[in-house]
Amino acid sequence: MDEALKLLLVEDDDALRFIVKDNLEQNGYQVDVAENGQEAIESFEKNKYHLIILDVMLPKVDGFKVAEHIRKTNDNVPIIFLTARSMTEDKITGLTIGGDDYIPKPFSMEELLLKIKIFLKRSNNIAGQKPEKSQSKKIGRFVFLPDELILSLDGEARKLTMKEMELIKYFSENTNKVLNRNEILERVWGSNDYFLGRSLDVFISRLRKYFQPDPNIKIVNLHGIGFRFSVKKEEN
């Protein structure tokens, strides 16, 4: 790679942290490390990172709290959780508070490197491509500005997360069409499994609340199939 991409690795296990850091550096990445959540927050505030690898079980401040802190100021940087937890709700929590994916321990470096490559490519495409103009899209009574992560209604703007933006964008590009759950997961999350599927349901509930002020917009659940983003034209 022409310029070393900078990653933050947050892991309290000394041996695992050393192995992962060494492998990442051998693959051309520049890597900062943190041994606990407080160190991770301090490093994030002082540096700019292209991607963050974040253990869930951390001393001082856990990985979920670290992710929440990061998402307050940065919606774009990909976060990959490392988790030894088997609890379903923990994985769903990580995804819905702003994590992009998770890797359960033990994991292979090949799997981690592949996920890093995928998310760096996607985030660089979003950040690196300058749009010709800031494109706005009318969705019912709402104005959607994907480049600015904004959904506004009557001049009131709501700041979106990256995943919310990507999901609304996909829905708006396929208005009134039947959308398969698996297709949505592959398009927005880049993969498809049980935990991502549960995370999708949480995001759908969130978007329904956002669009609730306009009764002409519905996200219809098609049991066993997926969803339909229904937008009716207002009658004059």
Q: Which helices and strands occur, and which strands form pairs?
A:
Layout: E1 6-10, H1 14-26, E2 30-34, H2 37-46, E3 51-55, H3 63-73, E4 79-83, H4 88-96, E5 101-104, H5 109-128, E6 137-139, E7 142-145, E8 150-153, E9 156-159, H6 162-173, E10 178-180, H7 181-188, H8 194-211, E11 217-222, E12 226-231
Helix pairs in contact: 2-3, 4-8
InterPro entries: CheY-like_superfamily (IPR011006), OmpR/PhoB-type_DNA-bd (IPR001867), Sig_transdc_resp-reg_C-effctor (IPR016032), Sig_transdc_resp-reg_receiver (IPR001789), WalR-like (IPR039420), WH-like_DNA-bd_sf (IPR036388)
Domain Response regulatory: 6-120
GO cellular component, one term: protein-DNA complex
Largest β-sheet summary: 5 strands, parallel
Shape: elongated
Number of DSSP-assigned strands: 12
CATH architectural designation of the largest domain:
3-Layer(aba) Sandwich
The SSE string, one letter per element, is: EHEHEHEHEHEEEEHEHHEE
The end-to-end span amounts to: 56 Å
Percent in helix: 40-55%
Mean pLDDT, to the nearest integer, reads 86
User: Structural class per helix/strand content?
Assistant: alpha/beta
Radius of gyration: 19 Å
Strand order of the largest sheet: 2-1-3-4-5
- The poorly predicted ranges are 126-133
What do we call the CATH homologous superfamily of the largest domain? Response regulator
Beta-strand share of residues: 15-25%
